[in-house]
Amino acid sequence: MSSYVALKTLHIVSSTILFGTGLGIAFFKWSIDRSGNITAIRVVSERVVLADWLFTTPAVIIQAVTGIALANLLGFPLTQGWVMQAVALYCLAGACWIPVVVLQIRMRELARAADRDGAALSEQYWRYARIWFWLGMPAFAAVLLVFWLMVTKPS
Predict the structure, then answer these.
(1) I need a labelling partner for 52 at 20 to 30 A (CA). Which of 9, 96, 97, 140 fits?
(2) What is the pLDDT at residue 155?
């Protein structure tokens, strides 16, 4: 297998993991929050944080490394055209994702405390949940646009 095929395969697989895990995490976190079941919210919040560390974080790193390697291998400058747009959108998604991870950790801790104390989730939890939700919108849009750029490679 050539280095190009290996890099491209890793790039495609990691993009699939990145998008699929992100979409799955968002769906289950948003859905379980709507349930109002504090124990379920705690458990899903714990799993969401774990899934981001186990799947999303490595995929983010692999995407960046393989993307740069592929661009260099194929002679695409990172600072021009569709590659530059893809890099900018990837950075936008990352700029949204980092605070999302921090919010998920904070929500996990608030859910643990509420479940332990038999209390309702605090207004702080719901404030974090709203910010988390709205940060996801530009992140997902950016990832979808990166996919479009990768497929179409517009000039």
Answers:
(1) 9
(2) 83
One-letter amino acid at 117 equals D
Residue 123 · residue 2 · CB < 8 Å: no
Dihedral class, residue 81 (left if φ above 0, else alpha if ψ from -120 to 50, else beta): left
| Neighbour count for residue 91 (Cβ, 10 Å) | 12
How far is the CA of 139 from the CAs of 41, 78, 117, in angstroms? Answer: 23, 20, 34
Q: Which of 136, 138, 106 is nearest to 28 (CA)?
A: 136
Of 114, 138, 126, 128, which Cα lies nearest the Cα of 43?
114
Positive or negative torsion for Cα 150, 141, 77, 6? negative
